[in-house]
Amino acid sequence: MEAFVAGGGTSTMPWTFEGRLRTLWNKTLRWPGHFKEWQSYMKAGLLETEPVEVNGKLVSPREVLHTLLDPKLRARPGEPDLVIVRVLAKGRKDGTAAQAVVELIDYFDESTAFTAMERTTGWDASIKAIMNAQGITPKGVKPAEIAVPGPLYAQELLKRGFNLTESVSALG
């Protein structure tokens, strides 16, 4: 596997925690060569949405790439997948150097046929929607790391059968 810095759901965190963290990484794991392939697609203009003329027709390079890659990359029904989310924080707790680790590991669910990716994105969205409907989260657009109460969110993940662990330990 290879890891590279990615955006996505945590993309507001650098501003939220500015001045309070020395280092913040959000990395995605993929198969070796994945990032280099996508850099090549980007450099070739294949991620552009602005249509270009090809044989007298306007086509979006991104739509062409999606049309070609989707059937090759889509998981086959029942094909298992895996999602790992790991948060590692180092700092001081009660004056002592410490680290906290929160980890979620999820797999394809044979009983529902939901992939781990479907489970981790779908349940995440539903938990946040329920919190919003119940008035737990503030109205308006707010970053998840500000709006969503972490302990309650973790309880909701556990209720849905996620393998979520948390630990705090002294360093050195």
- Runs in which pLDDT lies below 50 for 5 or more consecutive residues are none
> Class by helix and strand content?
alpha+beta
What is the average of the pLDDT values? 91
- Side by side, the strands of the main sheet go 5-6-7
List how many beta strands DSSP finds.
Answer: 7
Q: How many alpha or pi helices?
A: 6
How many discrete structural domains? Answer: 2
Order of helices and strands: EHEHEEHEEHHHE
Oligomer: single chain
N-to-C span: 29 Å
Strand content: 25-35%
What's the overall geometry? globular
Radius of gyration in whole Å, from Cα?
Answer: 20 Å
Largest sheet: 3 strands, antiparallel
Helicity, as a percent range: 25-40%
Can you walk through the features of this model?
With 172 residues, this protein is α+β, with helices and mostly antiparallel strands. The chain has 2 domains: 37-73, no CATH class; 78-170, no CATH class. Helices cover 34% and strands 27% of the residues. Strands 5-6-7 form a 3-stranded antiparallel beta sheet, with helices on one face. Strands 1-2 form a two-stranded antiparallel ribbon. The chain has a two-stranded antiparallel ribbon with strand order 3-4.
Secondary-structure map:
Layout: E1 2-5, H1 13-16, E2 27-30, H2 34-43, E3 52-54, E4 57-59, H3 61-73, E5 82-93, E6 96-107, H4 116-133, H5 144-147, H6 150-159, E7 163-170
Antiparallel strand pairs: 1-2, 3-4, 5-6, 6-7
Produce a short descriptive summary.
The protein is α+β, with helices and mostly antiparallel strands and 172 residues long. 34% of the residues lie in helices and 27% in strands.
